[in-house]
Amino acid sequence: MRVMERTFREQLFFLVLCLSVLKGDSRYIENNEISKDELYSFFNSELKREIPEELMYRRPLRCLDMVAVEGQFTFTAEHPQLSCAAFLMAEPTEVITVDYDSVDIDCRAGDFITVFDGWVMKGEKFPSSQDHPLPLYERYVDYCDSGSLRRSVRSSQNVAMVFFRIHSAGSSFTLTVRKHINPFPCNVISQSPEGSYTMVIPQQHRNCSFSIIYPVAIEISEFSLGHYNDFPKRSMPGCAESGDFVQLLGGNGIDTSKLLPITDLCISFTGPTHMKIGCDNTVVRMVSSGKFVNRVSFSYRLLDSQELQTIKLNNVEDFCFNT
């Protein structure tokens, strides 16, 4: 039987900081080893720290790190560090910029610093290629390739990451991380296992996902798709054919294109719809044709151990635990 503490930590460490960082000569993310206690301490300490308004927050950047505050972060290699990554996270209504303040690395020797627009874990990417506005190759910005031409990198959503390799002791770099208000957030990873959110797509042809990296009970309180606002609430087959719909997805990875579809919604309604999803990752995903203003409001909370045990016979639960 899976106890709550283990459930919470396993999915948190796997999806938040089961750091899949560089190996060998690759500039892409692979697997790496780090203790669960280290990961848990990174997550808790950073998310809860406030920044003094009168003074920029500064601290050293770790080889394996989580940054959820604005500030200036300096990495100095005490010995060769070939597999490093820092995960950056902001509030759902914010995006992140990473500024290169000073860089002293040897690109010709194989050093590099790369900012990725999103997160990469175990080969999976958030947002998925289907949901991100940029092609995949444009989401990787390598300092050694861009140099002084691009001293600042801006994310498209509330998460980003920096991964880097340093061969020589004494080499260093300093980054400033800032957050900016995003008036129409699209593609979000929730910092918390409970909360509420309203996703709006204002006549834009795009797909947006809200990812909750916990097993949760979710309640959809309002659902409005422009092309069906005048229709009564009823079932409608073939939601995908309508061009505007909302999906509930579940699974154990972060790539929404690889998650299990739980249900599709394509008829507007007002009034609560409840569902319990025992997966490590629960996603509310809205697909918009761009012809209408689409909106969905929902709240969510962490499932307790008794609820998880009760729904283990559910097919979605079997899928989540057996993959």
Description:
By secondary structure, this protein is α+β, with helices and mostly antiparallel strands. The protein folds into 2 domains: 58-181, Jelly Rolls (Sandwich), CATH 2.60.120.290; 190-228 and 238-314, Jelly Rolls. 15% of the residues lie in helices and 42% in strands. It is built from 7 helices and 21 strands. It has helices at 4-15, 36-47, 136-139, 143-146, 239-242, 305-310, 315-322; strands spanning 58-60, 64-67, 71-76, 81-89, 94-104, 112-116, 119-121, 124-126, 140-142, 152-154, 159-166, 172-181, 188-189, 195-202, 205-212, 216-224, 245-251, 260-265, 269-277, 281-289, 293-302. The strands form 5 sheets. A 5-stranded mixed sheet has the order 1-3-12-5-10, with no helix packed on it. Strands 2-4-11-6-9 form a 5-stranded mixed sheet. The longest helix has 12 residues, at 4-15. The protein starts with a helix and ends with a helix. Residues 1-51 and 229-236 have low confidence and may be disordered.
If you consult CATH, what is the topology of the largest domain?
Jelly Rolls
Spatial ordering of strands, largest sheet: 1-3-12-5-10
Tell me the helix content.
Answer: 10-25%
CATH architecture descriptor name of the largest domain? Sandwich
| Strand portion | 35-45%
**What is the number of helices?**
7
> How many β strands by DSSP?
21
Which geometry do the CA atoms define? elongated
Cα Rg: 20 Å
How far apart, in Å, are the first and last alpha carbons?
17 Å
Helix/strand structural class: alpha+beta
Order of helices and strands: HHEEEEEEEEHEHEEEEEEEHEEEEEHH
In CATH terms, the superfamily of the largest domain is: Spermadhesin, CUB domain
Question: How many separate domains?
Answer: 2
For the record, what CATH class of the largest domain applies? Mainly Beta
Estimate the mean pLDDT confidence. 80
Give unreliable regions as ranges.
1-51, 229-236
Largest sheet: 5 strands, mixed
InterPro entries: CRF-bd, CRF-BP_C, CRF-BP_N, Sperma_CUB_dom_sf
GO molecular function, one term: corticotropin-releasing hormone binding
Subcellular location: Secreted
Function: Binds CRF and inactivates it. May prevent inappropriate pituitary-adrenal stimulation in pregnancy.
